Amino acid sequence: MIDGSLPEPKKVKPPRTHWDMLLERRTIPELEDLLTERLEELRGRRSRTA
After folding, report:
1. What is the rounded average pLDDT for all residues in the chain?
2. Alpha helix locations (H) across the chain?
């Protein structure tokens, strides 16, 4: 206590999740395109090995 008053509580930022950080770099449409590309690549790999 300073001068009889309580100190102000520190402002706590909510923790940033992986999703939050991802959305800072890419838009939802970009992420959907990237997902589609990667799934096509994986499916192509799977059909070649089968």
Report:
1. 90
2. 18-25, 28-49
